[in-house]
Amino acid sequence: MVKEYIGTGPVAEATAQLDKEDRRKRDEEAHAWEEERSRMEALEAPIEELCDAAETLARAALLAAGYRQHKRGEWRLRRGDGQR
Amino acid sequence: MDSGEPEKTRHESLALERAAALKELKALIVRIQDGDEGAVPRLREILRAMPELARKFVNPAVQTERSMIETYAGVDALVARETLPHTLEAFRAKLGGESPSPLEQLLVERIAATWLQLHYFETLYAQNMDKLTIAQSEFHQKRIDRAHRRHLSAVKTLAQIRKMGPAVQINIAEKQINTAG
Lengths: 84, 181
Known about the structure:
heterodimer, A: two-stranded antiparallel sheet, 2 strands, B: 81% helix
């Protein structure tokens, strides 16, 4: 923060008032943005949980059916499981 | 006692049940992927309860979607109330088909939810673009990117399950392990 001495008198008082108003506005904006961020994060959390659950169940189903993921990529039927 | 308490407790206990099932599944998945085939029978045992297990996740998914629609109404009430429910219904009908298995149903709900979230974030960003600082704009864009990745991953998983065909479908829908011998 830079402090600037602007003397005394009505002009100085008006300047200080404007400065104070600016600071209040900036604080309000920062606060509103923080609230917005929290709200958005709260919106993302349940979707992430849903994605995690669905992905886990899908992987489990593939593994149970005899598929294995090849090097974190393609899913292939494990040798022998296709003929059962 | 607060009248909402039993309902809250029930939700909490269901959430704990879901979390415990997921935790066990994840541990088994890691073991199997590391080559421990001895974990497969337990995995199959859990999956025999798959329809029930998958349904336990569908209800929270639908609730999440409803709450997203309510949030959407804050930025575009007309779209939220008139268009979105129909679009989501069309999604379900088209992606789910006539008789989706519980897992497919869950995967379709996931696609609907991730699509809705992506659409909401994009709308919100478009509406506020001119008022955002560079840092805020970056934050929005990163969030949109994450939502986009989640949506693509959701679509990919459903496609994968469908591509694997009857082996996985039968396994899930009929509780029949066709690889069991």
